[in-house]
Amino acid sequence: MKKYLIFGLLLALTWSMNAQKKELRAVSKALEKVNFEQAATALAAAEALMSSMDEKQKGQFYFYKSKLLFKGGAAELEDVNKSIDAFAKIGSSVSSEEKNTHFQNLINHLINQGSASIDKSDFATASDYFSNAYKLSSKDTIYLYYAASSAVNAKDYDKSLAMYEKLRALGFTGIEKQYFAVNKETNKEEAFDSEVLRDVSVKSKSHINPTDKNSKSRYPEIIKNMALIYNERGETDKALDAMREARAQNPDDLNLILTEANVHYAMGNTDKFKELLGYATEKDPKNAELQYNLGVIAADAKDFDNAKKYYDKAIELNPKYTNAYINLAALILGQEESIIAEMNNLGTSAADDRRYDELREERNQLYLDAIPYLEQALVSDPTNFQAAKTLSNIFSATGNDVKAKEYKDMADRLQQ
Hints:
By secondary structure, the protein is mostly helical. Helices cover 74% and strands 5% of the residues. Among the domains are: 2-139, Serine Threonine Protein Phosphatase 5, Tetratricopeptide repeat, CATH 1.25.40; 177-214; 320-416, Serine Threonine Protein Phosphatase 5, Tetratricopeptide repeat. The radius of gyration is 32 Å and the shape is elongated. The N and C termini lie far apart (93 Å).
């Protein structure tokens, strides 16, 4: 009796093993034919037999499940995420070649979709794609950096801060070796994606003087962004701690100096704010971009005189600095707001009427003072729609209909 029982159990076990193999083969064949519906049906049948699968069969099951969810790159982000979860359970039962091919397809898809989302300014989706790439390949910390940067652009500061803190804990720098050579025809140094491509160009004699360089560390940027996020959240002490760490590593980084100045300004530390601005100017007094940025910061602080001084200095260093001209005009026109507010609050007395006329003249003078800067902006950049449109509005307000039409026509052409 016992012999028959054992024989019966062996038959059941053999049937179960054959059933598992049959269903897994069915999934494999359906995937080869790109028949995802049939593959899903076979996979569901195989899943019902999971409890009796050995480790090798389970590995194959998760491999097929990952491929099915991925759908050859046609899957939505949610299913790609599930595909990655399944991929993590494959183990060593699937051949390295098959596994690596699928892994590369997943990574390429995530990076390509993340980049495409950035191109469409969909930074939240980009962050999800890049964070999934890091989840799939945690040794590639650059993906986590891309995810954090995208989250910042999406204004998801809690998410980006958590990622930045992880990068900080990992000691991430993002420093990469870069490959350069001089193009013989243009005599200019060019960058190559890899050492192999650079060396091929050198051997073909289209390029000379190959050199290797290290890219700048991304660590100061990470700390800077952390400081800005902490400051945005009102955690100013943490913001300053982060800035101190960043400055300690790069004491002469002008962007970090300006960022720390902004943090101090947000905290109301105006003396420290001005001290850092002065220090930045001393470090690089002939840097037109720095002078421009100092102008922006001073303008944000409602420091009209210093903002004008910095913008003027930027133009002196770079007479074609279009944005400096635009911002100078905006700085002047920004004074109109207080004039209009006073005009609106005047009564109907004779004194009020006289004051109204005075204010109207002041406002008119502001318009006239702004005109030369806007016209110069168009000289340095004839395609600047903003300058043309503002000039059209100013001349219209000052009663110069000929000039108003001239700049309106220009603005209309530029907008086409």
